[in-house]
Amino acid sequence: MRNIISINNIHKSFAGLHVLNxxxxxxxEKETHVILGQSGCGKxxxxxxxxxxxxxxxxxxxxxxxxxxxxxxxxxxxQKFSILFQGNALFDSMTVIENVEFGIKQSLKHKHLNSKxxxxxxxxxxxxxxxxSRVFDIYPAEMSGGMQKRAALARAIAVEPEVLLFDEPTSGxxxxxxxxxxxxxxxxxxxxxxxxxxxxxxxxxxxFLSDRVSVINKGTVAWIGQAKNMKNCGNEFVExxxxxxxxxxxxx
Length: 252
Description:
By secondary structure, this protein is an alpha/beta fold. The protein is built from eight helices and ten strands.
């Protein structure tokens, strides 16, 4: 299976602080990949470099053969992605269906659609993530955290991306709701047959969602493999991360 995301030897520093140090990673088409690591290890910076928010100091990032630095194809590059933000990033002044419609209207794939067709897609996507039609015309503040996460996912999948990005998808959710959201994310990715990339510090999320895990340490990939093999992988940092994560989970 071909690689859809290629990250080759990227470096990124801020005021002399080296955050990414020659990080390289290949992610296959339709793979469910999780980037795992401690807070401050460079996960979020990597995500922002992938999205072109931060410009790398050196190295190369390509998605489906398009470079993040190709200004002439920047719109085409960005259309490959959709992201489920950590804080959901729903517009407070818009209803749920208006939030989902907004994403569709920004999509080059859907620029030919009229308002009724856009509305129909938005309704279908909202229902597909387990919400009821009664939420169409309510505002994000009127919903629980779990419902907001579902609405944000509906907006993310409505644009038919090739790659879905999940940024700390269970952050701020109680364990039961977090588990339900993880199930929804896994089922959605499988149903759509697309690539997903999740950024998290939560080992349980990584174990549940991933085909493969990349563990980040000091701005580079310390280890890549299946989450179940972390415990005895032979990498001291990864094994310690695994043990510490399980101790924390046991306490809760």
